[in-house]
Amino acid sequence: MTIDVLTLFPEMIEQALSHSIPARAQKAGLVDIRAHQLRSWAIDRHGTVDDTPYGGGPGMVMRVDVAHAALSAIDHTHRAHRIMLSPDGDQLDQGLVKELSQKKKLILLCGRYEGFDARIEKYIDQKVSIGPYVLSGGELPALVIIDALTRLIPGVLGNQESLKDETFEDNLSDYPQFTRPEKYRGMTVPEVLLSGHHAEITKWRRSQRQEI
Ligand code: ADE
């Protein structure tokens, strides 16, 4: 799978993905993530990517011509699923993460300021929000999507079993986990987990998962 991120802050994306599971997935060649500087598609030599809104009002609006040029350059045949991060988009949940993890090519377009010129919608396939609140840009939402979906790519997690029982699978929460010390400030570990009785442990864990 390849993920291209279009942003004014490519270092934010690269830095955040240089750790833990996303870093491992990239090293193993299971996902190829590239962060592109939107400014490199600016049409003037000052690298202008935004301008004041028609009709007046506060803030700056990101230019459609710059974003369109970037999209065309990295995906000229429009094979990729193009997503723009936006607080008014489809709300991200585990179902949407799964759907996106099946795509071969994804593009994540990150806005800043007051967002993009509305005409950008002609060139994207979907708007996605990570929640009902407003962030200062699309970079953190893009990272949330990348993190959530890379861990679903087969081979990324060391143990695929760990996906099976996790929270949101079958609309059930994960079961509670315990490790050493066996006793902590008067709190003990459920007896059954110390029993070595695998069938009983499985039964107990199943009983602990709750509808969400
Ligand atoms: N950009 C600003 N806020 C956002 C949000 N909640 N989700 C996606 N993109 C955003």
Name the descriptors.
alpha/beta; Alpha/beta knot; five-stranded parallel beta sheet; two-stranded antiparallel sheet; 8 helices
Plain-language structure description:
It catalyses: guanosine(37) in tRNA + S-adenosyl-L-methionine = N(1)-methylguanosine(37) in tRNA + S-adenosyl-L-homocysteine + H(+). InterPro entries: Alpha/beta_knot_MTases, tRNA_m1G_MeTrfase_C_sf, tRNA_m1G_MeTrfase_TrmD, tRNA_m1G_MTases_N, tRNA_MeTrfase_TRMD/TRM10. Belongs to the RNA methyltransferase TrmD family. Homodimer. GO terms for molecular function: tRNA (guanine(37)-N1)-methyltransferase activity. This protein is an alpha/beta fold. The protein folds into 2 domains: 2-150, 3-Layer(aba) Sandwich (Alpha/beta knot); 164-208, Trp Operon Repressor, Chain A, CATH 1.10.1270. Helix content is 31%, strand content 19%. It contains 8 helices and 9 strands. It has helices at 10-16, 20-27, 64-74, 94-101, 139-150, 161-164, 191-194, 198-208; strands spanning 2-7, 32-37, 50-51, 61-62, 81-91, 105-109, 126-129, 183-184, 187-188. The strands form 3 sheets. A 5-stranded parallel β-sheet has the order 2-1-6-5-7, with helices on both faces. Strands 3-4 form a two-stranded antiparallel sheet. The chain has a two-stranded antiparallel sheet with strand order 8-9. Helix 4 links the parallel strand 5 (81-91) and strand 6. The mean pLDDT is 95. Adenine binds at residues 85-87, 129-131, 133-135, 138, 141.
